[in-house]
């Protein structure tokens, strides 16, 4: 015969306290990404929409007094005879380039999935374009932070601060 276990009862107040603290933790973890999205996506989107509803010239852009025109800019663009062909060319270019990218990508994936004599070498060479920006970035930072001839230490010397050995260990 088996004995049945009764689950331990949790007082309702404790469960509510745990749920509330879990909610605060969830919001604390969400806050950085929400702030990031607001600063780098929502605000630029708002600003672009706001700018599109004004009539900017070089003078008004510098002085910051561009008059509000509402949707007149959009009406002007939609009424322009060059808009239709430009939109068509953009759509055709987008569709054709996506089809070619998909076909070429799929063909390369099928090709590299097979094992043959030079497959490992070709896969390694295929990754070089992804690695190259990292190598260039690391080299640039290495040159900038060089303790003898780096730009950062030159700027510090110009401010009257001694050079810093950025890339050495304190040991």
From TrEMBL:
Residue stretches making up the ABC transmembrane type-1 domain: 87-171
What UniProt keywords apply to this chain's record, in alphabetical order?
Answer: Cell membrane, Membrane, Transmembrane, Transmembrane helix, Transport
For this record, an example GO cellular component is: plasma membrane
Highest taxon, organism lineage: Bacteria
The UniProt entry lists membrane topology as:
Multi-pass membrane protein
Q: According to its UniProt record, where is this protein located?
A: Cell membrane
Looking at the UniProt entry, the stretches that span the membrane are 24-43, 86-112, 124-144
Which biological process annotations from GO are given for this protein? transmembrane transport
Q: What is this protein called?
A: ABC transmembrane type-1 domain-containing protein
Please name the source species.
Sphaerisporangium melleum
